[in-house]
Amino acid sequence: MTSAPTCSAPLSTDVAVIGAGPVGMFQVFQLGLQGLRSHLIDALPHLGGQCAELYPDKPIYDIPGIPVCTGAELVQRLRQQMAPFAPTLHLGQQVQTLVQEDDGQWLLGTSTGTTLRAKAVVIAAGVGSFVPKAVKVDGIDALVGHSVHYHPADLARLPLRGQQVLVHGGDELAVQAAIDALAQAPASVTLMHRREVFTAPEALLAQLQAHQAAGRIRVLAAQPLALQADGTALQALDVSLPDGSPHSLPVQQWLVFQGISPKLGPVAEWGLELVKKQLPVDTGTFVTEAPGIYAVGDINHYPGKRKLIVCGFHEATLAAFSIAEYLTDKPVLLQYTTSSSHLQSLLGVAPSAA
After folding, report:
1. What is Dmax (Cα atoms) for the chain?
2. Domains of the chain: which residue ranges?
3. CA dist., res. 323 & res. 165, Å (int)
4. Topology annotation, domain 134-258
5. What burial letters (b/e) apply to 194-213, b meaning 16+ CB within 10 Å?
6. For residue 7, is pLDDT > 60?
7. Fewer CB within 10 Å of terminal CB in the chain, N or C?
8. pLDDT digits (tens, 9 = 90+) for 290-307
């Protein structure tokens, strides 16, 4: 798997898969078995969708052949499964535009300026794109990407050295970010939440307490009221303390971990038929009303639909066969990974003994 740099020149692929949750990841695997190259796009900065973001440590009991695994474990297994097909990843990007070109191919544009030309598109966006919850403070939008950062995936890429850093949030991601920020040699690190109670593993909380006791991380119970900035440079944050008194906190870099929420987003603007914010599909092919665009997982709709991961796996399998036939205009020969030397070669495994 490779992460593609953002660029303006169109990248070409067989299939663009929108949504890197479990179903989108399995879709890449099934497309790979058909010999099709994939680019995988997701608004989150990591693979896994809901599994990784909402319940990474919670048990899942209804995955075939796996009596129990956590959301994070399932994502890791799916990552390993699709690895032989080396999909190109476009993470932390939301698909904004989807337009069909004269030759029937689809041109996708993302929020970071990436353009991608694909022969077919699979929408595996679940209940929509998961986007960070925005802080409601006047003037904050102009600072995003400069001195305000929502759910940053790599702190090493941020200008934290010598800066007064504020990490805002109360979950495991926020606690980990506050600890990780210390490695970037900031002038100070403050971890702010509405109360001095954090939801994180005990081992991580013990690390936080040790850094707090040593004076390396300040923990502050407060809520933001207003910001002070010079252009795109944040200078301070006015906050309200638990007793209601105001306080001005010097801040130069603000890392926000206030959770995420699903939004249908630009899908509603692509001209595709929607039924209750879902895409109707043909259950034999999982194609939408637009030839070349398919929908699998929670984003699609058909009679008897059940929003289960295992159902999404079934849909991705049939969609891959359908896409292969659509692109070649020929029936696809059914082969089995247990006996097909061709599929085993694609997977990079030794042929099974006869």
Report:
1. 77
2. 2-131+261-347, 134-258
3. 48
4. FAD/NAD(P)-binding domain (3.50.50)
5. eeeebebeeeeeebbeebee
6. no
7. C
8. 999 999 999 999 999 999
